[in-house]
Amino acid sequence: MEIKTTKLKRCDLITLIGRFDSAAAPALDNALREANERGVYRIVLDMSGVEYFGSAAIRALVVAYKACRRFNRGDVRLAAVPDKIKQVFDITGITPLVNIYDDVVTAVGSF
Hints:
Layout: E1 2-7, E2 12-20, H1 25-37, E3 42-53, H2 55-69, E4 75-79, H3 83-92, E5 99-101, H4 104-109
Parallel strand pairs: 2-3, 3-4, 4-5
Antiparallel strand pairs: 1-2
Helix pairs in contact: 1-2
């Protein structure tokens, strides 16, 4: 599991690599929370390297989504989501909430 945050002009790009199960979800939650604490409410998650995204990681994503959307401050957008992860988002009902883009450039450019 690897999390890398890149500060861009329009937003923060958080690149996720590996498995995000219940053991790795707190690190994801911390990365998202740190961005909010710095006043960043526009976040793009690059999920091209994600192999597994469990329920604890989904919870961290939903908490960050709510924090960013509160008071209409920003949004969390997903980029390059693998098909098997996209299926999990469809089943859990995340897909209608979060904008999903085919690549990072398009996701960042959407802000």
